[in-house]
Each structure stands twice: as structure tokens, then as C-alpha cells.
Amino acid sequence: MYDILVYLFENYYTPQACPEADVLAHKLAAAGFEHEDIDEALGWLYGLAQTTEQCVQLAQAPQSNSTRVYTHHEYQSLGSEAIGFISFLESSGYCRQRCAKFSSTAPKPPPNPPYRLKSSKSWR
Fold it and tell me: Which helix (H) or strand (E) holds 85?
């Protein structure tokens, strides 16, 4: 999957330059990437797009009295030292609190994403 993400970064500098997911999947397969890796990478990118959209919505609706609460999973993944540093950045104004969303894992793709291929035979 990471090879695909590097390939996309090197060939498509902005998300706007990337073709639609189904066309991109075919181009990646033609470039020699495995179908499972393509599905995983596109799923990760789909989740990233969803998360980015949510962050933009949060940034457009500022709430000065909000407090960031970390989940148990985030606390276990990041640790108290990293959370303390993030809190410092937020309090200093370097990192706005309402947009600070950190996670140790990539977003999970939806169960039936629109880009998932029906059969690998259709690529050949």
C-alpha cells in the first residue's frame, strides 16, 4: 500500500490532479500494483478525504470553549508525553484545538466502497 501512496505522490502532486477512483485503480493495476494493495490504498485515501472534510467543517464552526478529550485508544497509542506536547501546542496557539485530531491508525474504508473492483479478471 505504501508503494502506491508514494507512487501517487510522485505522479499526482495534488488531489485535484488525480483521476476518479475507478480510473485510478485501473491505472495502478496497469502500472503493476497488486489488486489488494490498490483496494487498501484507495480505502485509506477515501478515509483520509472523509476525515479532512470533517476537519474543514469543524474549522468553519469555531468554539472557543471546547476541550479535546482523547479516547482510550488514542491515549494508549500516543502516550501521556505526546498528549502533553499536543496540549502545549494547542495552548500556545500554534495548533488550534478544534482541528487537532490525531490517530495512530489510518481511517478504515467503508464496507462496500464505490471503487472496489468486482473481479481482478476484468483488468486483464
Answer: helix 72-91
What string of DSSP letters covers 23-84?
HHHHHHHHTT--HHHHHHHHHHHHHHHHHHHHHHHHHHS--TT------HHHHHHHHHHHHH
Fill in the amino acid letter for 2: Y
Distance CA 97, CA 83 (A): 12
Check residue 36 and give its pLDDT: 94
Q: What is the pLDDT of residues 81-97, one digit of tens each?
A: 888 888 887 777 766 54
Phi and psi angles of residue 20, each rounded to the nearest 5 degrees, phi first:
-60, 160
Nearest alpha carbon to residue 1 among 120, 106, 113: 106
Cβ contact 47:109 at 8 Å: yes
- Distance of alpha carbon 49 from the chain centroid: 6
Alpha-carbon span 33 to 29, nearest angstrom = 5
Q: What is the predicted pLDDT for the residue at 33?
A: 95
